[in-house]
Amino acid sequence: xxxxxxxxxxxxxxxxxxxxxxxxxxxxxxxxxxxxxxxxxxxxxxxxxxxxxxxxxxxxxxxxxxxxxxxxxxxxxxxxxxxxxxxxxxxxxxxxxxxxxxxxxxxxxxxxxxxxxxxxxxxxxxxxxxxxxxxxx
Length: 137
Hints:
Helices cover about 0% and strands about 55% of the residues. The chain is mainly beta and about 140 residues long. It has a single domain (about 5-125), classed as ApaG domain (Immunoglobulin-like). The strands form two sheets. Strands 4, 5, 6, 8 and 9 form a five-stranded antiparallel β-sheet that branches. The model has no long low-confidence stretch (mean pLDDT about 90). It has no helices and nine strands. It is elongated and about 50 Å long. It has strands at about 5-10, 15-20, 35-45, 50-60, 65-70, 80, 85-95, 100-110, 115-125.
């Protein structure tokens, strides 16, 4: 794969890195079940604390089937990141095809009550991406 399958973007001082890994042992291609684990790392390099309120994901499979996932926080948490702090989590994504993409955004708020959106750039759910998520993290 010539394009980097991972994502790394900074918005409003929040750097979001995303990477996925194919879970061969959990997948069953004969039944069109492909499972991927993905890791997100969020670092606050800004000057103000920020609280993650909600997430929105757009998942696209190889058949152009789209699924939107919207919810509060991430993995049951709404972390507050002070300047210099980071938070990472791991979650899963099932697909009906052997590859797909994810992209989305997080909604944050700061102490003054201002809310803002932090996009998560597209990253690829592909078996060829390798077996180490967020290499060098």
